[in-house]
Amino acid sequence: xxxxxxxxxxxxxxxxxxxxxxxxxxxxxxxxxxxxxxxxxxxxxxxxxxxxxxxxxxxxxxxxxxxxxxxxxxxxxxxxxxxxxxxxxxxxx
Length: 93
Known about the structure:
Blueprint: H1 3-18, H2 34-45, H3 50-64, H4 74-83
Helix pairs in contact: 1-2, 1-4, 2-3, 3-4
C-alpha cells in the first residue's frame, strides 16, 4: 500500500473507530488525531504486534490526552490497524 493511502486509512480508523475525543460527528475536527498517524504507521511498518499497538493507544489516551482510563474498544482498533498491513486476499481456484 502506498504511504499516502496508508496515512488516509490510519486517519480514518482513528477518527471513525478509535475516537476517544468524540470528533467523528464534527467534520472540522477530523484532524484531531493527525499528530498520531505517523507514529502509528512507524509501529505498523516496524512489525508491531497487537499488544504493542494497544499499549501505544492506551498511552496516547491516558498520558497524552489525560483520560483516566483507556477506551474499552482498543482491541478492535488495534485489529483494524493491523489488518491494514495484511496482504490482500487472493481468489485462487
